Amino acid sequence: MNHPFKLVLGAAAILAAFGVCAQTYPAAGKTITIVVPFTAGGPTDRVARDLAEALRKPLGGATIVVDNTAGAGSSIGMAKVARAAPDGYTLLLNHIGMATVPSMYRKLPFNVENDFEYLGIINDVPMTLIGKPTLPANNYKELTAWIAANKGKVNLANAGLGSASHLCGLMFQSALQTEMTSVPYKGAAPAIADLMGNQVDLLCDQTTNTTSQIEAKKVKAYAVTTPKRLATPALKGLPTLQELGLKDFQVTIWHGLYAPKGTPAAVVKTINDALKVALKDPQFVKNEEALGAVVTTDKRLEPAEHKKFVQAETAKWGAVIKAAGSYAD
Description:
Elements: H1 4-23, E1 32-36, H2 43-56, E2 64-68, H3 75-82, E3 90-94, H4 97-104, E4 116-131, H5 140-149, E5 155-158, H6 164-176, E6 181-184, H7 188-196, E7 202-206, H8 207-215, E8 220-224, E9 252-260, H9 265-278, H10 282-290, E10 294-295, H11 303-324
Parallel strand pairs: 1-2, 1-3, 5-6, 5-7
Antiparallel strand pairs: 3-9, 4-7, 4-8, 4-9, 4-10
Helix pairs in contact: 1-9, 2-9, 2-10, 4-11
């Protein structure tokens, strides 16, 4: 028969171990892995690598690596983190996919709301509507005329089911009340590579992935998806889709940081505190602003507010996805 005093001592020892773990996090010599559920070279990967660099100092010089685990609209990488040890050494950096995966997939091996600790929103990223370099349309008016004249023949690329570019494409087709041929890729990098190579016609993607291509004139740029024009030098001349007549058309992609459910509260606080410092790092801010992204400074930096925000976004995008009938098994 177990002695109650021994049970109490055992429980105390476990709690003490968690306390030591939290106090020494991150431990010297242990690597922190940020899982990015998309391919290397894409916009989310770029944010993750910049953030990893900015997080090193506030986390005591810790070694931080990025692991690209792509596929199934980000759900494969999400599942990897959900089942990882809840010790703060495996994190997830994901975009709006956190809010769209529950509606995109009928069966998931995790629950977005309950299987993650929310660590804070990192940034907001506008989208740009761009076309292949040989597209005959030189402005938005010419583009819509070209789309109408080529009904049923227009190819619209995206970075895969549930990706930011897929969602923007769904809204664009709905706003124009026309259908285009969707061409999914395994990430944003191959999608934009084929666009530059004239293999597909159009793409709506994040400024973090398109700004340099627009600036180098490797693609044709038609509009941005924000309510107001952007101040970024390469994008400031682009009109908004709202001012071009697509009422209430607004798509802004956000990125957030997560840990497996059950990560000790002290570790969550340590990471959240470090994130707040990292988002003020001058180089990180400069990198984000150069790409048209806006670094978070509002209440969504708090874990509870981050979670509430994702819940609201899940409801919003669930309605869009349901209306489009865009599901995967």
